[in-house]
Amino acid sequence: MLTIQDIAGVWDKHLMTMRTIEHLQMFSVALLLSIIIGVTVGVFIYMKPKTANPVLNFLNIVETIPDLALIVLLLPILKLGAGPTIAACVLYSILPIARNTYTGLRGVDEQYTCVARAIGLSRSEALFKVRIPLSLPLIAGGIRIALVFCMGVVTLGGLVAAGGLGTVLQNGIQLYDKEAIIVAGLWTGLLAVLLDGFAGIIEKKLHERYGTW
Amino acid sequence: MQTERLFDRIDSIQFKGVTKKYGSGFAVKDLDLEIEGGELLILIGPSGSGKTTTLRIMNRMIEQDFGSVTINGIDTREVDPVRLRRNMGYVIQNIGLFPHMTIGENIGLVPKLEGWDKKKTEGRVRELLDFVSLPPDMFMNRYPRQLSGGQQQRVGLARAMAMDPPLFLMDEPFGALDPILRKQLQKEFLKIKNEINRTIVFVTHDIEEALILGDRIAIMDQAKLVQMGPPEELIFNPANDLVADIVDTKRKFKHMDTLNVKDLMSPFEQKYVFEGKMNACDAVEEMANRDIETAFVFDGDELLGQVTMMDLMKCRMKSQNLADVARPVRTFQPLDSVAVALSELKKNGEYLAIVMNSKHPIGILISDEVLLKLI
Predict the structure, then answer these.
(1) Does one domain contain both B267 and B235?
(2) Fewer Cβ neighbours under 10 Å: the N or C end of chain B?
(3) Smallest Cα distance from B151 to chain A, Å
(4) pTM value?
């Protein structure tokens, strides 16, 4: 049975405060990039519907590459450190965000888009003033999926010297330090659950604000 | 994006040979139509008759395959559609207020895109909410879902008026409301219509609404214009069975032959009586006092004729009295048939007559009112 002292001991020995900050830094950068790229791709394939299928199929293929393999494949290009991990996160996250953005934009009720046109909104005005706001709940849903992906991939980063809580787990496995594995494992899991819960609240708020009944 | 004003008022809108194909059929086929500035034209017809297509061709939501639509001589296809639409107010049945914007933001959207500053936009929004009888302070910051259907429709109307367009396109704007609310909004709309004095093209499938609101009614069927004219023309001279069916002549006016003039006349009031000896210029003042536009000139018991305010304003000679300028007025007996009376009026381009009981006037027959009483 783990006592508070044990946990505190593991925490200090493995520099877990620092590791947590590293972890969350990588995670935030990755998620932010994913949102920017994902939403952009989603809007692009909505504007050019012919590209939608090829792009989504390509992203699907990327999605099927095992995460460890993807990180290792990225190593020669991005060198050791946080680079390959962040890149892998982004590559995985583009699909759910882009797909939800695309579905959301297409799914906006025709009565609103028709009125937007009729009262004299140009295509881009209709996109930014009507379509994107009304798709926000669905886009947020995509981001929430990406968030969970990213938490997992960032943890794997420990294997390629990216830092973060994965490093603690990695050390624990190599040194057969059961306590470190349990503490770091539980803490990583708890962080993911907390962040997901937080994202869930934001998603719900967006639904209340922008959702259509 | 800022757009220039296309026209301050509509002089005329002309459809020439406008055709829109729809698959193998036609949505609109070879349509010729002229809409006069300032009128409210109703487009009515069975579903699929092309009335909404006609409306949407005007703001280029739908582009015709052949033919042209010109507004004040400008071909709509030569104008940027965004600019064209910002010069027209548009109201539809399901209103389509944006659910993520407040009422104020909904109404102020296009002004904001036109680059109006915050203060000017808010001022305009307040003015419009007042105009449609929604207290601005109470409604500006609410979201559409917090409003009833009737309130939403008023906001829809306010939004259409935001840029003060000279032309309104309305596609069954009251269609989704319950009958009582619809009546009320129609009544308010009539008031608004008279105040803003704009050209309005109004699609409906409700003939009562058409007869109440329309200056002229265009009946469409199977992508074609069947008949167009003022309400009474459609009722008394329907071009074919479909028109008769739509204006419901058979049912509503079946009893017309049995109705007498006295059933549908308005009561005669003493305020309409003027003595023939009266000086014409004094009469103008007296008519204004009595708040009437038309007066009937009597010499004792004898009816000499009618004068209107307009006639009297034109006459400049001081020496004239009413007996000199009175124009003959048609008279009917209380038991004359309404149908005969109305068609006689129409034939002579008149709109009112006096109903005489032997020597005494007992009522006035006004063609517009007769129609309203019938529906």
Answers:
(1) no
(2) N
(3) 18
(4) 0.69
